[in-house]
Amino acid sequence: MSRLASILSAIALLVGAAPLLSQPIGPAQPVTFSADSSRATSGAGGASLVWTLMGNVRIVQGTTTITAEQGTWYEGAQQGVLTGNVRITQPGNTLTALRVDYNGISKMAVASGGVTIVDTGATITSSTAQYDMGRRTAQFSGGVTVLDSGARITSSSLDYDMSQRIARFRGNVTMRDSNTTLRADNGDYFSLEMKADFRGNVIVTNDSGSIRADHLLHWRSSQESFAVGNVVVQAPFQRSQLFGDTVHAFPQRNYTVATGKPRLVKIDSTALSPQTAPDSAGSRAPADSLAAVRFRYDTTIITARAMEAYRGEQEEYRATGNVLLTRGTLQAVGQIARFLSGPELITIGPGRNRAVADSAALPDSAAAQTPAPVTGLPGPDTSGTNPAATASRGDSLGSPFPTPVVWYDKSQITGDTITIGMKERKLEWIEVLHDAFAISEGKIPQRLDQLRGQRMLFTLAHDTIRQVRSEGEAASIYFNYDLENPDGAMRAVCDTMIITFDAGKAAQVETIGGEHLSDWEIVPEQNVQGAEASYRLEGFRRYDRLGNITPSAAQPQTSSVAPASRPLQENSTSQQRR
Fold this sequence. Notes:
Blueprint: H1 3-16, E1 32-34, E2 37-42, E3 49-61, E4 64-74, E5 79-90, E6 93-103, E7 108-119, E8 122-132, E9 137-148, E10 151-161, E11 166-176, E12 181-190, E13 195-206, E14 209-219, E15 224-234, E16 240-250, E17 255-259, E18 263-271, E19 295-303, E20 306-311, E21 315-327, E22 330-340, E23 345-348, E24 405-408, E25 411-414, E26 417-423, E27 426-441, E28 448-461, E29 464-482, E30 485-502, E31 505-512, E32 519-523, H2 525-528, H3 551-554, E33 572-576
């Protein structure tokens, strides 16, 4: 066929062609085009025609239609360059750009300049895009923004699957909707599920606080988040952080659970009494001025096997499994612990026979028990023995401690349930329920003061024990001193015992009989010296902070003190301690 015949045939095709929108996309589909004006020239060396198209350019291939202001079409290569308000439409989506390079064989369009794709409810904008019309996938770069079902997502680049509506973002990803903001290095978004799968320096923030993690799944409809790897949960308007390997957050339920070495860190600031020094003129700052107020920061740290957080009218944390709590000089261990920030309570132990706390815990959470107001006590013993000696005492969770233990200064407290109460973030009281036992180290380490009862209440002021009250089968052994010299011991048995402290020392002991008359005995120093280990109340157990029983407690000896040498004639008596 002559060159003229080829041109005439192409013109006839141009004039009579109609869009083939009903045909599926396939490699054999023809390309038809039209324009207000067109000019055909032969390629180099008499090759295929090159068409220059001007005004209302329209190219159709199967279900794909491209419109533009002008374009160049290379007939032999079946590809062209279109510029000026380029628009590509397919069933369900539309692409617009300033320029598009289109290949009719590969069905690939490379768009640049103000690229926008609208796809079934999602709108994507970027500087450049590569659109595979056959596979219905696109790659965007040069700053990407996606609007999808009320969410706005931005990133450096994006791979998008229009068939499955899955977006894979790369670089500086940020997603915002009416409730939540997510940021990460990279992330995938599943539009049909409204689910985000973000990775690398992830942070999600909403009204419930924030979560940081290496990897995070987030469901927009429920606001639920599942975070893995170096997770940190920050409560709103609180100086508290929850750490863990894995965290599952349910903001609509005000509930979060952390596993994998979870750790709660809470920092409290306490205003101290104003103390100001006079300036050069001899005047002092007003006591209520900011410069005159000093603050002390107390940090509470709780570790466990699992940690739950409830946030409602009050903030509450519940720890289970090998719980360890540290706050200043106070340390506690147990299998269950609760921390309530509203009434400022810490409860360690199951809380048997207690009323259920008024808390924000969900109905399906384990019932937590509330303590009656009580007060504080002393601390630890760091000497210990081989863990093998106590391995048989471990409970089902592997804890070396068979009961909750609290150490404070030089004292140890044990019992079924121990509750620590604070007021204005200052330690105010400690209550021990059921099988309560307190051990305190005195001036001589071997002489251990002991107190036992069914309920104990320690009252504190300025971080110092002021009074201890033991109720129900109360018993005690206290070692006396004449100034700095040991001076025997005192043993007492009664229904209720009240010990008052002055300057950190037991100054007065009051015993109340009740059903059983109060019995007490003073033992002279010559009977005590060298036999200190025999002065132990029944149930004496002294632990180091690894859970080991100290040698002196491993084989408790019977006290050499006579059981009840003298029944008191009165129901109540008071003894002054030296």
